[in-house]
C-alpha cells in the first residue's frame, strides 16, 4: 500500500425530502447570500428550484440564480458565475444538478476568490487561494462530484477539456434524495452507471499491485453497480435501487476506493478529448467505448490482475491461461456496458479515424507524455487505442 492523504469534509443529508433541509443547514453554517447554480429548465419545471429557493427563503438566506449549465460545462458560464459572485457578495454556492453543474460550481467557487481569470487555475493547478464553500442538491448520480476533489471544465475557444483537483472545493454539504432521480431518462441513467463503474476501473488497474482493503471495497462497489443496474433500468422508481446507486456513485469517486494506490486515469484522459472534440458526446458513453479498448491494449502488462477482476466481478472460472482469462474479463466488461445501452465503438459517437490526429496535441497538453500508471502510454499508444475503439 502506498502512502496517501485522504480528506472528506462533506456532510451528507440522505433520503426522502433531503432538499428541504438546504436552507436550515446552510443558515446554520453561516450562509447569507447564495448563488443557486443549475442546468436546464427541467430543474425549474420539476419544481425543484422553487422548493430549494423556498427552503432558503424560510431560513432567511438570500439567493441569486444562474442556470444554463450544459453537459461538459464550459468556461464562459463559469466566468459569468464568478462575476455574479464578486458583484453580488455571494458567500456560498449551491449546485442543483449532476456532475456538470457541480463541476461548474466548483470552478466558480475558485474563480470568485482570485484576481486572475479562472481558467488560469486549470492551467497552473494553483492551490494557494481561498474557495467559496459549496453545497450540492444531487439530481444525477454519476460523476461523484458531490464529494470529490475534482472538477472538469471545457474551454471551447481553445478546444480543451481539462481537470483541476483541489481538496478545498470538496462540497461542504451534499443533499441526496434518490426520488429526484426517478425521472432520469434511461440513457442518462445508463451513462451515469457507466461513469461510476469506470471510476472504479481507473483505481483498480494501476502499477501498485494488490491492496486488499481498497481492492475489496472497489470490487464490492463494482458488484453493487452490476446488481442494481438492471433493477433500476427496469423499474426507474425503485427507491432502494436508486438509493443504492446514488450512494455507490459517491463512493466511487470520493477517493476512498483508491487509497494506497497510484490510480491510472489514462482512459478518462482519452475520453475527455472525445467530448472536447464534440461536446455532445456524453462522458459515460465515451468511457463505455474507450475503456475496453484501453484494456485490450494494456492487459498484457499484468494479465493476472485482469483475470482476478473477471473472477471477482463476473464470476468467470479460471482456465489456467491468464491471458485468455484476461481477455474474457474484457469481453464481459464491454458486454456489460452494451447491456446498459451504451455504444461500443467510436463510429457510434460520430468519431472517425481522421479525428484521431486532432485529439493528440490537446491530450499531450492535458495529460503529459507519458501518461497512465498501469502502462506508461505515448501519443503513439493513444492513437492505437483510439483505432482499437473505432
UniProtKB/TrEMBL annotation:
Signal peptide start-end: none
Residues covered by the Alcohol dehydrogenase iron-type/glycerol dehydrogenase GldA domain: 9-178
Record keywords, A-Z: Oxidoreductase
Domain spans labelled Fe-containing alcohol dehydrogenase-like C-terminal: 189-389
Chain coiled-coil ranges: none
One GO cellular component, as annotated: cytosol
Keyword Iron tagged: no
A GO molecular-function annotation: metal ion binding
The UniProt record lists the keyword Plastid: no
PANTHER family: ALCOHOL DEHYDROGENASE YQHD (PTHR43633:SF1)
Protein name as it appears in the record: Iron-containing alcohol dehydrogenase
Organism expressing this protein natively: Adlercreutzia mucosicola
Lineage: Bacteria, Bacillati, Actinomycetota, Coriobacteriia, Eggerthellales
